[in-house]
Amino acid sequence: MRGNMRKLIPESAGRGKPLILRLFALFALFTAIFFSGCVSGISSSMAVLVGPDASLADDLKQEGSPRLARLQSSDNDGKAKKEIPSGPPLPPGPGDLAGPPMGSGLGLPQVANGYRVNVAAWVNGKPLFVEEILFQMSPQVMKEIAKYSPADQAEKKREIVAKQLEHVIDQELMYQDAVHKLEQGNPKTLEKIRKMARDEFNKQMARVKENLKDAKIEKEQMRELTKLLQRKTDREFIATEYMKSRIYPNILRQIGPNEVRNYYQKHQIDFQKQESVKWQDVFIALKPEHPTIADTKQFAESLIAQYRSDGDLKRLLAHNDADNKDRDSEGLGSRRGAIQPIEVEEHLFKLRDGEVGPIVEFSEGVHIIRLVKHDMGGPIPFNETVQKQIQNKLRGEVAELEYKHLVRELRARAVIDEHPEP
Fold first, then answer.
1. Which helix (H) or strand (E) element contains residue 369?
2. Of residues 36 and 140, which shows the higher confidence score?
3. In this predicted structure, what is the pLDDT of residue 396?
4. Tell me, what's the pLDDT at 27?
């Protein structure tokens, strides 16, 4: 797959420049809008599996018979070879993308009878397009690519597309299996899930259009991007429901109260709170009115005496000459070895809450320190918060394993061609 990735990135007609290089800029703009908060993507990550949400697709819990078996035959050198069925030039039916996924608005090369479709892979006879693979890229990926030199960026993009293709293939397999089972077993549930996906898509598009109302984007270009997003949303939503229905019951069976408590007991070292302090630091610098360290120390002592007399903390903090004055004179560092300046640490951990410590002298001035709170640390109790953290960790680990098992199962009985001939 990796060595033939260039086949997935066709050259634009007459330009000799990979189509991916021209598509990335536009996708970066549109994807940035989506991931900046205007549109909430439907995640297929393990995070959706650790919570208590019940799946809508309960009908998917029972495995169905394989939809397609992997076709193999022996060639002359004795190696197994997949026979890939020839697929249609365009994805069929209203449930998929009607017509080419993109048009001239994105600069796709034209042929005599329309637009050239750039297929990245065939999955059980259904095409996945290069354009929708690129559409999955996040702004974080774009920033990562930008770190490379211009000479290396094209190859890095190819590597990322190759990795993303594997993820989209896995998602497509889940989508196809879910649709196949629900079409035969419970079409009403399928329509319900699709309606939810459409409703979510419409809400997202309303926000996107509002944010793009002043942008110079052609209507045809927006129409094509909208079509591609609708296909993406539908597949992500159904694939996520499928994944939850297949994996979440296994998580519940494997991770319960006993497993959570056992983890806590075996990992006590991970549930220790370190000793820490919260403190305030008032720095009195050398000034004409107290030009020497002795004079400055004497002035600081008068401030401390006044504070101990009237308890006016604001008056004491008002004399701070350091830049932490705007942060309520908060001291730097909270644990042993992290306190700055290091000379004040030994005094801090001896003070009582609310107590002002001894004046610490430096060549540029003196520090007045005050302890706000001393936390002695120790074992973190097995409370509800800790139990939830452990539960999510263990569920995440099980979900990751179950996900990999599910993907292996679906791929084992699928026909996938990741190297379609042009």
1. strand 365-375
2. 140
3. 93
4. 54
CA distance 243 to 121: 22
| CA 138 to the chain's CA centroid | 9
Helix locations, 329-383, DSSP H: 345-348
Secondary structure class of 314 (helix, strand, coil) = helix
Instruction: Give the chain's length.
Output: 422
Residue 188 pLDDT exceeds 60 = yes
311 dihedral zone (left: phi>0; alpha: psi -120 to 50; beta) = left
DSSP string, 258-310: HHHHHHHHHTGGGGEEPPEEEEEEEEEE-BTTB-SHHHHHHHHHHHHHHHHHH
Nearest in space to 183 (alpha carbons), one of 44, 57, 89? 57
Bridge-partner residues for 127, per DSSP?
122
Other beta carbons less than 10 A from residue 403's beta carbon: 19
What totals of helices (H) and strands (E) does the chain contain, helices first?
A: 11, 12
Residue 142 has pLDDT above 90, yes or no: no
Contact status, residue 211 vs residue 38, Cβ threshold 8 Å: yes
pLDDT at 206: 83
Class of 275-376 in CATH: alpha beta
Where exactly are the structural domains of the chain? 2-254+390-417, 275-376
